[in-house]
Amino acid sequence: MFEPPLTGFSYSFTDDGFYEVAYYRAGSNPTRPGCPTGIIQWQHGKYRKASNGSLILNPFAVDGRQLMSDPCAYSNAVYTRYHQQEIFKQYEVFPNPYDKAQRLNLYGWDGTPMNPMYLAYKPPQMLPTQTLNPTSAAVAATGTQPSSTSKSKRELPGDDDGLVQEALNRKALLKQRHTNNADRLWWLGVGMTALGGVGYLCF
User: Fold this and answer.
1) Region for residue 25 given its phi and psi (left: phi exceeds 0; alpha: psi -120 to 50; beta: otherwise)
2) Cβ neighbours, 10 Å, residue 37
């Protein structure tokens, strides 16, 4: 999982009641300016519209993930499970008056407005709308059997344990990683330097 170049958040919704959300926040540290923090949160699940106009988001608890980075406290980022129900007091969908782009306004449970969002893809680009880490409890909660793509991780050679998890959607939060063999590159450099020296002496 890699940190995006910019902070922000994104919500995606389908017509049949599924959603996906990703957050990336950065925090300053006034007492130690060289120790900024960062946090990535990702969830997906089902949403419903309440009779009072509010929007209720219920995540698949086993799928949510959080990546917290605090370089002055930990040598590596902390990767954990994460799930949090969200309630929005109200929402608005309308063409933005300035450029006519489809705009979404969300208001927190207490009515506090969030930054507006604009439609990027229709239909939305999302991971599969069922649990990606199936358990008997998760299947009972979602009411759907996971497909073969969600039962197993696709794997590639090259990680520390010999495997790298490949993204189900390369444009989603989890991206495919590429590893380099540092020893091989070092020996290649030594060989090229030696070859250049021999050529210089001979010619």
Assistant:
1) beta
2) 15
**Could you tell me the two tokens for 74?**
């930990």
Q: Please provide the DSSP assignment of 36-68 as one string.
A: -EEEEEEEEEEEEE-TTS-EEEEE-TTT-EEEE
d(CA 185, CA 77): 27
pLDDT at 182: 64
Residue 147: is its pLDDT beyond 50? no
Written as one letter, the residue type at 26 is A
Give the per-residue pLDDT at 19: 94
Count of beta carbons in the 10 Å neighbourhood of residue 51:
5
Global pTM reads 0.63
- The predicted model gives 26-44 an average pLDDT of 88
Average pLDDT, the chain: 77
Helix (H, G, I), strand (E, B) or coil at 83: coil
In our burial notation (b when 16+ CB lie closer than 10 A, e otherwise), range 160-194 reads eeeebeeeeeeeebbeeeeeeeeeeeeeeeeeeee
Structure tokens at 161: 């344990």
